[in-house]
TrEMBL record:
Entries under Pfam families matching the protein: TGT
Gene Ontology molecular functions: tRNA-guanosine(34) queuine transglycosylase activity
Tagged with keyword Zinc: yes
Boundaries of every tRNA-guanine(15) transglycosylase-like domain copy: 59-312
Cross-referenced SUPFAM superfamilies: tRNA-guanine transglycosylase
GO biological process, one term: tRNA modification
Protein name per UniProt: tRNA-guanine(15) transglycosylase-like domain-containing protein
Cross-referenced InterPro entries: TGT-like_sf (IPR036511), tRNA_ribo_trans-like (IPR002616)
Assigned GO CC terms: cytosol
PANTHER family: QUEUINE TRNA-RIBOSYLTRANSFERASE CATALYTIC SUBUNIT 1
Organism whose genome encodes this protein: Actinidia rufa
Length: 345
């Protein structure tokens, strides 16, 4: 999983305003720590529940047994027994781990859910943050981040912690815009679970700073590379005789040393293919974050957005939701858009 900081510097001394942050649940599949250092990763974020059981354990929310006022009960992936995680225990575990940034326990619901369950989740999350604050024993050493819930309901909350759950893109960007407008300007605005390059550029234009997602490495395991034009599917038969690098403009060690044809051969037969693509995809996202940040600092962000969109949508078919979001952000992308673009995805 990947966390990205675009604009704001954070707590630890090693983190700069241009930092790339890598998020893991114990391990990065297919990559070594030394490779992460080569890429420039400076933060590792771990999942409290996973690490409380054992590093690299995985759990699905499908195995979520129950949510009560006391806490969240999961089915342990280790022995199948139920495990209750309370706000207090969540903070205790994170205090013990010693992370620079720790997260409050929240009541998570899918954004596609409507009705009283959304309101229940929002108010419970608010009550739990009070319990997390009270349980936090290392406030001078660890930054406790709250998570706001509220689904897509603009009345309940700004829901920045409740996105990436299947909502349509038009609802997605509108909630991000509402959230960033309401949250303090001197605090990092973290959109959880968001990691597509296009989404990151749009959210950054709307005022968000931090993101996390499994997308770059997960899509690599399916044989897909991230490139300025979008994605490149290395398993496709047309790649078999293509002697170009994944991205001719990329300076990562994969693009310097391997051809598309070679990686095509690997991704269909050998685990090394997904390892190489994971490295490239992380490198791509790191460069995207650096370029985003530089453009903001240099006052060239609108130009950066237009250039990014022109590469990804050379025919001018920029999705309508992106056009609407950029209008709210005050960025003119009319030169990037075909006259009657109406794509929603």
């Amino acid at each position: 999983m990947l966390m990205l900081v675009v604009e704001n510097g954070m707590h630890c001394n090693s983190l700069t305003e241009r930092s790339w942050v890598l998020v893991v649940t114990g391990t990065i599949k297919g990559l070594m720590t030394s490779q992460l250092e080569e890429i420039g990763c400076q933060i590792i974020l771990g999942n409290t529940y996973h690490l409380a059981l054992r590093p690299t354990s995985e759990v699905s929310l499908l195995h979520l047994a129950d949510i009560t006022e006391k806490g969240v009960t999961f089915q342990s992936p280790v022995d199948g027994k139920p495990m209750l995680l309370t706000p207090e225990e969540s903070i205790e575990i994170q205090n013990r781990i010693g992370a620079d940034i720790i997260m409050a326990l929240d009541d998570v619901v899918r954004t596609t859910i409507t009705g009283p369950r959304i309101e229940e989740a929002m108010y419970r999350t608010l009550r739990w943050i009070d319990r997390c604050i009270a349980a936090h024993k290392r406030p001078n050493e660890q930054n406790l981040f709250g998570i706001v819930q509220g689904g897509l309901d603009p009345v309940l909350s700004y829901a920045i912690g409740g996105l990436a759950g299947g909502e349509d893109k038009d609802s997605f960007w509108r909630v991000v815009a509402q959230c960033t407008a309401a949250l303090p300007e001197d605090k990092p605005r973290y959109v959880m679970g968001v990691g597509y390059p296009l989404d990151i550029v749009v959210c950054s234009a709307l005022g968000a700073d931090m993101y996390d997602c499994v997308y770059p490495t997960r899509t690599a395991r399916f044989g897909t590379a991230l490139v300025p034009e979008g994605v490149l599917k290395l398993k496709h038969r047309t790649m078999a005789d293509d002697t170009r690098p994944i991205d001719p403009t990329c300076t990562c060690m994969v693009c310097k040393n391997y051809t598309r044809a070679y990686i095509h051969c690997l991704v269909t037969k050998d685990a090394m293919g997904s390892q190489l693509l994971s490295y490239h995809n992380l490198y791509y996202m790191m460069k995207l974050s650096r370029d985003l940040h530089s453009a903001i600092i240099e006052g060239q962000f609108p130009e950066f957005v237009r250039s990014f969109l022109q590469k990804m949508f050379p025919k001018g078919d920029v999705p309508e939701w992106v056009c609407n979001a950029m209008e709210v952000a005050g960025i003119d992308i009319s030169l990037c858009c075909a006259p009657f673009s109406s794509s929603q995805d």
